[in-house]
# Entry
Amino acid sequence: MGNDGITDLLYLTPEDELYKDACHLLEGHLKIGLNNADYRNFLIGAGDSLFVDVSSMPEQDILSLSNMFVKDYKKYGKKQKQLKKTPEKCVSILKKESKHIAPAFCVLLPRAIRAQGRVYVNENPTFVSTNFFTIESDEIKSRILASWFSTIFFQLECEANVNNRKGLRKLEKADYLPMHVPVIDNLSDEQKQLILSTSITTFMDLRMPRIRKIDRVWAEILFGGNAEGILDEALTLVPILVADREK
# Structure
């Protein structure tokens, strides 16, 4: 979502000038959107923005909205650069992107992270931007997978496979493919319930990590009596790799 540009038209907030000026066109056509990777909560409820879904908007209104955006881009665009899209191209992009809603209970992995090991699960159908990889799942499996992705072990593996972009940890699809992921069917009912009942209240601070309850739960499942020693090792390695990345 958003690979073709015009993010400033696709994703709005009530504070945006375009939202205020085009409210008569947008009424009834704004849906839950997630654009940025620094959303604060593990579970995505109402998202961080409103997505312009034109799937039921009259053709003339889509064109009017696009004309407004192109004509006053310097007013509506958040980035100070020239817009190279015509109104007709904007109409085409709006229509295409309005088909790409992610169903509820997807796992959302940010493509770029700097300081916190973020991962999300959307509780409602959401229009998710290109800043995330989206893994379709169901309510139970998505929460188990996301809990693993939040752990110090997965974050350590990400740092080991990092593409360093000026201190930013950037991972493309090919970089994620070799990562270890739990086979959920191999977990016992007791283990699943333990994971599900352990809330993720904070994301891991990669610069100064601390072992959270969810890290300890997964460590005990994976390593049994060796859990504490391996947790200590991971706790030592993560900030070293992050510091090296941020040099």
User: Anything to note?
Assistant: The longest helix spans residues 227-245. The two ends are 32 Å apart (CA to CA). The longest strand covers residues 30-34.
